[in-house]
Amino acid sequence: MPAQASIHPSAIVEEGATVGPGTSIWHRSHVRAGSRIGADCTIGFAVYVDTEVVVGDRCKVQNHVSLFRGVTLEDEVFVGPAGTFSNDLYPRAVGDWEVVPTYVRRGATIGANATIVCGVDLGAWSMIAAGAVVTTDVPPHSLVMGTPARVRGWVCVCGRRVAGVDGPLPHSCPHCGRSAEAMMAS
Question: How far apart are CA 62 and CA 78, in angstroms?
Fold first, then answer.
């Protein structure tokens, strides 16, 4: 029998939100109606999950992250503390919002305090450095850093850097032994 979700008493999970089995939602988090959180996720302290947000299975969203409407996290995504997402390219206090979707593909990692401007696609197993400001799509397996974020290397599924921006991919990851083909097929 699958484990029930664990929701801290100070967390708010609105009726109409879906929370998968084995997921933990920690102190002072707020999960809005119409959002969907998969199985075996960890939603940290003071995380906001807006309506229509999708969080896949086995994701970890660290403390003080806001996932606004339009954000989709596929399976096995990591969002570091205070990772920031936007959802409107032309925000104003008055007038209509135009929600622009953002996709974070399987296995991607977003470092602490990184900012993700809406409308981008973060490729599978990409690595966004702490403090980076992402304004354009990020290729799969790339390591991006800076303001604005630029590709600075390539990473394996295990999260370790395997090549510089101009360097060839090795035949296998020196850290976990995964072949180059297996790295890119994931």
Answer: 8
